Amino acid sequence: MSENFSKGKRGAIIKPDPNKVRITIRLDADIIEHFKSLVHAAGGGNYQSLINEALREHIKAHDKSLEDVLRKVIREELKQAG
């Protein structure tokens, strides 16, 4: 007996969190592997959520606004490039 999927819907079963933004970012392979290994050791989860949490902790630890951090990074990159 074959299944009838004619009334099936495409897309995510669980709608994404509206506070999350989809982006494309390139990270070093060893960084990704580190977070994937943490997920594997924990028995499952989402490595992207771990990266998000690590970024959030970094921001809190440095007690600066995101704008200040970004300005500093941009200044440093411009200084190295020019």
Describe this structure in words.
By secondary structure, the chain is mainly alpha-helical. It has a domain at 29-81. 56% of the residues lie in helices and 0% in strands. It has helices spanning 29-42, 47-62, 66-81. It is elongated and about 65 Å long. It starts with 28 loop residues before the first helix and ends with a helix.
Task: Quickly describe the structure.
With 82 residues, the protein is mostly helical.
Share in β-strands: under 5%
Low-pLDDT windows of residues: none
Distance between the termini: 68 Å
Query: What helical percentage do the residues reach?
Result: 55-70%
Characteristic key phrases:
82 residues; 56% helix; elongated
Record the SSE blueprint.
Elements (H helix, E strand, L loop, with lengths): L28 H14 L4 H16 L3 H16 L1
